[in-house]
Structures are given as structure tokens and as C-alpha cells.
Write a structure and sequence with these properties.
2 domains; Rossmann fold; alpha/beta; 5-stranded parallel sheet
Length: 328
């Protein structure tokens, strides 16, 4: 039996601007929606103002603290709008009996399409030529074709696989690296799984699509960059901190690699020295930033809340023990 007077606090902003469907679903289920009134990411103190009488949290990337859990005594469920859940304290969720879910797959196609767009931009230098033309230039800079290149994908999961699928018509050789090698997918899409070191040495383009774990922190280090070709292009659309940004800056300035494209950073908003370089493309963590993906993520998050509210099984529940083990 659904509980009466249930409340869902929505921390992520904006919310329901693409479509009212998420709010309509909550209303139909008898759940009152409280949308983050601050219009910005919330601090610990901000969170404490709203969480005391809340049953469910539909979350962006808020700073969950133990004080939050102590105050949110009615809280039963946190649902992340998106695929990343590294900011969710699973140890505290387990301790306080709060279930966690997320919306995998909703942003997969958008991130994969942005990857292909940035990859081609890095080779053909569209962004650089645009800036040059706006500054009064008319220079026919030579780029390179994607066709015939070797593309290395580190992290052949949901997004990595979609990138590989989109690469099929381009006539490229594809190398993959992942903790779990999907042999059937590799055969179907002509992917050769190799070690990271071999991928660094062999690939013309290296695209990162891994989860944020302690072992992935600064995976692209000065040493990793030193193994890459001087003509190599590096892309990171996974998580900030996977690439050592200081080492990348150094490699780009010294022409150790030819170029890079980043959508995520260790500290966001990013204002670091990479902004001064012409051989790097920087986007503002917009991988899943399409109207279609946003709607899917918001509706998917609300549908999980409604299922839980009705006493139905969650479709994308995360097991704290499994997540904590993977993060070690």
C-alpha cells in the first residue's frame, strides 16, 4: 500500500524544463514534488534545509553527508538522474537502510555521439578554424581523415560499445581494453582486445569511457602519455580525474601528443591552463546534454521512485556491497 503524503525532493537543476512528464508521473502517483528552489548545486547546509520530511530524493550530484542521513529520517530511496553514482555514499546508505537506484542507458547515445563529434573535430580542427575565421583569418588548415585510423577504446561498456557501433562505417581498426572482455561483441564489431600499454602505443585516437574508481584516478598519467604516438589524439568523456590534467597540458605543449578533447574535469567548472591551448577541445560536461537524453533520465528516475512507492521492485537498484567492493 503506497504511503500517504509522500514527498520527493528533487536536487538536480534544471528539472522538468524539457518535459513536464516527470512531474505529471509524480502527481499521478500521489507524490508531492519539491524542486530545488536554489537553482544551483546544493551544499551540505542547503541540503539540510529541505531533507527532514522527505521520503525520496531524485538527485543530481549533491554532497550527501552523514548529517543529511541523520536528519532525513523518513528517507527510503535515492535515485540518481544519470549514470554516475560516485558521489553517493553507499556505506551510509547501507547503514541507514536507504536504497539507491540510477538511470543507466539514458545518456548512452548522446555521449557516444558527442565522442564521435569531438573525435572528428580533433582531426579536422573545426573549432580551431572557426575561432581563427572569427578573428579575421582565412586559413585553409589541413586536417586528417578518420578513415584508416586505429581507434582505441578504454572501457568497452555501455557507452564504449555504442561508440564502437557508430565507428563501424568509417573504415577504422578498433582496439579495446576492459576488465571484462565481451568476446561476442568483439567478433561482431571487429574489435581486438589488447593491454592498455599496447593500446597507448598503437592507437591514433584513444577514447576513455571508464567508471570513476580509485584505480582509474590519473589512469592517463605522464607515463601513459609518454607511450602514445606524437600524432595521437586523446578523448575523455568518462569522469574527471581519470586524466592527469597537468601531465596532459605538458604533453600537449611539448607536442608529445597531437591533440585532446575533454568533456569532464577534476574540478568543475574548469578554468585551468588547458584553456590557453589551441590543440585541445574543451566542452562543459555536456555529454548527455540533449533534450532527448534529459527527458529519458528524468522520466527514468521518477519511474523508479513510483515503482518503489507502489511496492514494486526497482529496475536499476544498486547493491551497496558490490559498489563498495568495486570502488576499492
Amino acid at each position: 500500500m503506497p504511503k500517504k503524503n509522500a514527498k520527493a525532493f528533487i536536487t538536480t537543476v534544471p528539472f522538468a524544463t524539457v518535459s513536464r512528464e516527470p512531474l505529471d508521473l509524480l502527481e499521478q502517483a500521489g507524490i508531492a514534488a519539491i524542486i530545488n528552489p536554489l537553482g544551483k548545486n546544493m551544499t551540505h547546509d542547503d541540503f539540510a534545509q529541505f531533507c527532514e520530511d522527505v521520503d525520496y530524493v531524485i538527485a543530481g550530484l549533491p554532497p550527501f553527508s552523514e548529517a543529511f542521513f541523520e536528519k532525513a529520517k523518513k528517507l527510503n530511496l535515492i535515485v540518481r538522474v544519470g549514470v554516475g553514482y560516485d558521489n553517493v555514499p553507499f556505506d551510509l546508505c547501507k547503514q541507514y537502510g536507504v536504497k539507491v537506484s540510477y538511470t543507466p542507458g539514458a545518456g548512452t547515445h548522446a555521449v557516444a555521439e558527442l565522442t564521435i563529434g569531438l573525435l572528428i573535430d580533433a582531426l579536422r580542427r573545426f573549432s580551431f578554424i572557426d575561432r581563427d575565421l572569427r578573428a579575421g583569418g582565412w586559413n585553409k588548415y589541413m586536417g586528417e581523415m578518420l578513415r584508416g585510423k586505429t581507434v582505441g577504446i578504454i572501457g568497452v561498456g555501455r557507452i564504449g560499445k555504442r561508440v564502437i557501433e557508430l565507428l563501424q562505417p568509417f573504415g577504422v581498426r578498433i582496439l579495446g581494453n576492459d576488465l571484462v572482455e565481451d568476446a561476442a561483441f568483439a567478433r561482431a564489431h571487429n574489435v581486438t582486445f589488447v593491454s592498455k600499454e599496447e593500446l597507448y602505443r598503437s592507437a591514433d585516437i584513444i577514447s576513455i569511457h571508464v567508471s570513476k574508481t580509485p584505480s582509474a584516478h590519473h589512469m592517463i598519467s605522464e607515463k601513459a602519455l609518454s607511450l602514445m604516438k606524437p600524432s595521437a589524439v586523446l578523448l575523455n568523456l568518462s569522469r574527471g580525474g581519470v586524466v592527469d590534467e597537468h601531465a596532459l597540458y605538458k604533453a600537449l605543449v611539448q607536442n608529445k601528443i597531437a591533440g585532446a578533447a575533454l568533456d569532464v574535469y577534476e574540478e568543475e567548472p574548469y578554468t585551468g591552463p588547458l584553456t590557453a591551448l589551441d590543440n585541445v577541445i574543451l566542452t562543459a560536461h555536456v555529454g548527455a546534454g540533449t533534450t532527448e537524453s534529459r527527458r529519458l533520465m528524468e522520466v527514468g528516475a521518477v519511474e523508479e521512485v513510483v515503482r518503489f512507492h507502489k511496492g514494486e521492485p526497482l529496475q536499476n537498484e544498486l547493491d551497496p556491497d558490490s559498489v563498495l567492493a568495486a570502488m576499492k
